[in-house]
Write a structure and sequence with these properties.
mainly alpha, about 0% strand, about 190 residues, single chain
């Protein structure tokens, strides 16, 4: 069972992000919100950016683990998007702040984790070189990361989310076409 104090720090921070810009939130605000002392905060987190990073990482891992099979890649993306939409204000507060690089780094990790998990399951029975698999992984990481940043830059507008979903629906066709072409390439080598 996760530590109660650590969970409360995270919850308090997220509540504060609903009310204030990230730049206006201090460790003092967080500890006052969750009624702990400052030392307890620093026992669990080095600083606010470390807190942000852990929150994002936990959410990402939970969703990727929950939807790691190929049949539910779209469900995984939907779940990720739902979390983003449900936390729009805090996410935009972080994205528009000095900690934007933290959020972008976590988005990159999330995309990598999601794509590697997806490709590993999808290509489980295929005999492709590691180089071909890595090219496919990179392609999908760039696709998802690029649309994620574009969506954030738009202010997480609903029409961008719908555009992202439509493009992701095409990914199955693109992915299957790439597998077919790699199979043909491998046949011609033998």
């Amino acid at each position: 069972m996760p530590n109660f104090t650590k969970r409360e720090i995270k919850a308090s921070f997220l509540r504060l992000l609903q009310q204030k810009k990230l730049a206006d939130i201090t460790v003092k605000d967080i500890v006052n919100e969750c009624c702990i002392n400052r030392g307890s905060f620093y026992y669990h987190f080095q600083d606010i950016p470390a807190l942000i990073e852990e929150i994002i990482q936990e959410n990402t891992e939970e969703i990727v683990n929950k939807y790691s099979d190929t049949d539910s890649a779209s469900q995984c993306l939907e779940a990720l998007m739902e979390i983003i939409i449900n936390n729009k204000k805090p996410i935009l507060n972080v994205y528009r702040s000095f900690s934007r690089d933290i959020l972008e780094g976590q988005i990159s990790k999330m995309c990598r984790q999601f794509v590697i998990s997806y490709v590993k399951v999808a290509l489980n029975h295929e005999n492709f070189s590691d180089e071909d698999k890595n090219h496919m992984i990179q392609y999908f990481i760039y696709l998802i990361y690029g649309f994620s940043i574009d969506w954030l830059d738009s202010g997480l507008k609903e029409e961008k989310a719908q555009e992202f979903k439509r493009i992701f629906e095409f990914q199955n066709t693109i992915f299957q076409d790439a597998i077919y072409k790699l199979k043909e390439k491998n046949k011609s080598l033998f």
